Amino acid sequence: MSFRRKDSGSVELEDGVSNPAFQDADVTDSPPDAPKEPDSVYTQVKPYAGMPKEVLLLYSSQARYRVPREILFWLTVSCTLALVAVTVTIIALSPPCLGWWQISPVYQVYPRSFKDSDGDGVGDLKGIKEKLDHFHNLNIKSIWISPFYRSPMKDFGYDVEDFRDVDPLFGTMEDFEELLAEMHKNGLKLIMDFIPNHSSDRHRWFNLSRIRDPVYEDYYVWADCNATKKPNNWVSIFGNSSWTYDEVRGQCYLHQFLKEQPDLNMRNPAVRKEIIDIIHFWLSKGVDGFRMDAVKHMLEATHLRDEPQVDPNKPPEEVTTEWDLFHDYTTSQVGLHNILQEFRAEMESYSREPGKYRFMVTESYDYEEVEKTMMYYGTPLVKESDFPFNFYLLDLPQNTSGLWAKHLVDLWMSNMPRGKWPNWVVGNHDKSRIASSVGKTYVRVINMLLLTLPGTPTTYYGEEIGMENINITADQVQDPFGKYNLSNSRDPQRSPMQWNGDMNAGFNNQTNVTWLPVHPDYKSVNVEVQKDSEGSTMFQYNFLNSLRQSELPFLRGWFCYVRANADVFSYLRELDGPAGPAAGADEHQPRQQRESLSEVRRPDRTRRGFGDPVLHLHSLSSQPLLGMLRL
Ligand code: GLC
Ligand code: MG
Q1: Is the CB of residue 110 below 6 angstroms from any atom belonging to ligand 1?
Q2: pTM for this prediction
Q3: Cβ 430 under 6 angstroms from ligand 1
Q4: In CATH, which of 3.40.50.1380, 3.90.25.10, 3.40.50.1970, 3.20.20.80 is domain 107-195+284-295+357-557?
Q5: Per residue in 589-613, pLDDT tens?
Q6: Alpha carbons 233 and 108: distance in angstroms, whole number
Q7: Which of 458, 547, 608, 622 has its CA 20 to 30 A from that of 192?
Q8: What is the C-alpha separation between 462 and 478, in angstroms, rounded?
C-alpha cells in the first residue's frame, strides 16, 4: 500500500478508497466561503456607499482593485527612492563652496619691512594696521605675517624666545589684538608663522634643558660629543656642523639652522603637548591659520648615523653645506606626518563655527622629490595641510621658455593628489625677487601666470608693484646666512616696501633710518604711482586678481594645456558643461613681444555659440595679445 500527496495537500490512499472525511477543510482547493468569481453575487452587485467592512474587504482583495493599488504603492516608493538618490548625487557631485583661503591670494607681509610706524627703522604691527587699505585696494583677504614673536632676532624672528609674546620691536600684545580685530572688521584673515622645529637658545626651555632640569632635560636633541669631535657629519642649512657643544651640559645640541636655533625634540610627547598648547593660545585669540615653518626638519633619525655624501670623494672636513649631503636622516623622517596631523586635528576643533575655518600651509623645500611635498596634503581620510607651499615656480629663472614654464606647472598638477587644491609661489623672504632673477620684463607675465593658474596665488610684499632686489655690500649684511656667505644673503629681497616717492619710500618718515636700504627705483616703483596708472604692474595685478575672483572659470574652472613651445605657454580655464563660460590665458610671448604681453586691461566680453561669454585679455594698444585664445 502506498500513499500519494495530492497537489491540494490532502493525502490519498493510492490503491484504496479515498476517505472524504480525511480531507481537512484547510487544505481544500479553495476556501468554502471565498467568493467564486464567475458565480459570485459580488461580481454582479456594484460597490455602494455605506457597505459593511466585511463586504468592502471582499471587494478590495479582488485582483482588479488589488493590482492597481499595489502598482501605485510601489510607484510611490520607487519615486521617493529615486528622488533621494538624485538629491544625494547632486550634492555629492556639485563643487563644494570655496574657502577663504582658496578665493583670495595669500599676501606675505615681512613685518620688519612693511611699514614702520614709530620711526625706529624696523616695520611693526601698528604699521601693518595703518596699511590695511592696501589689501582692500588689491582685493586681497588673506594675510600671512612672518614671525613677530619675542626674539633675539638672530634669524629675524625665526628664533623664538617666547611663543606667547610679541617682540617689543614689533609692538605689544595689545597692538596685535588691535590689528587682528581691525583685520577681522575689514574681512581680512590673519595667518601666523608658526615654528615647531626650533626655538631660540634664549628660550626658557633651553636654559632649563642645559641644566638638565628633569622636566626639560629631553626638550632638545642632545648627544655626547666634545668640543672638537661632533656626533656625526650632519650640517646646518646655514652652513657648518649642525651640532654645537654646550659647556653647561657637557653635550652637543642639534640645530638644523643657526646655533642660536636649537632643534626641539619633537619625539618627546611633552614637547608636542607644549606646541599644541601654543597653537591653542593663538587660535583662541582668533588667528585664522598657520604657516608651518621648516616642517621637514621636525624629526631626525635617533641612530645618529652619518648622512651619505653627495660626492663620496670629498674630504669630510670640506662637507660643510646643505648640498654636500643626502639628508636621509635629518629630513622627512617617518612620524613627521603624524605630528602635523595631530596639529591639524587641534585646528579642526576651532574650525567648526561657520566662517571660522582655520587654515594650514606647510613649508618644505623638497626639490626634485615632489612626491614628498605632496604628502603634506594628507590622505583622503586624514587631513593635514590645506596645501603645502608650491615652490616650483621659483625655478622659472633657470630657463625662461614656455616649455620650462609648462614643465614646472605640470610638476604640480600631475603629482597633486586627486581632489586637492593647488597653489603657486613666485617669491618669499628666502628667495631672490623674481623681478631680479628672471628679469624685469617678466614681472607682469609672472603675475599673470600666478593669477590665472588654478589654485591659490601667494604674493610676497612688493611683487604687486614689481619691486626688485637691492644690492647689499658686505658691510651692510644683516642676514646671518649672508654673513656665512654673502651670496646667500636674503637681505636683497627684504628691503623696505615702496609706498610712495617720499622720504624712505614712505616706509617711515620720522627719521632717515631703515634697517635695510630702500631700493633706488622707489620714485617710479611705488604703490602711489602705480595705483591709478593703467598699464602699471599693480594696475594689472589688481585687474587680474579681480578677474580671478569674479570669473568662475578662473576661480574654479578646469585647466587644460593648449600650447607650449620655446616662446609660448598657453592654457585654458573652462567650467564644466557644454556651454559653460571659458577663459584663456597665455604666458611667455615670443621674445620680441614681451613688453606688450604684460600690459593687460579690461576684459572684452564677446559672445560665441549659444551666448556663453568668452574673456579676451587685451594689451593696452587694444591689440589682442599674441597667442590669445579665441574660443
Ligand atoms: C624657514 C624660514 C626661514 C628661516 C628658517 C629657519 O625656512 O622661511 O626664513 O630662516 O625657516 O627658521
Ligand atoms: Mg618700528
Answers
A1: no
A2: 0.84
A3: yes
A4: 3.20.20.80
A5: 444 443 333 333 334 444 333 333 3
A6: 35
A7: 547
A8: 20
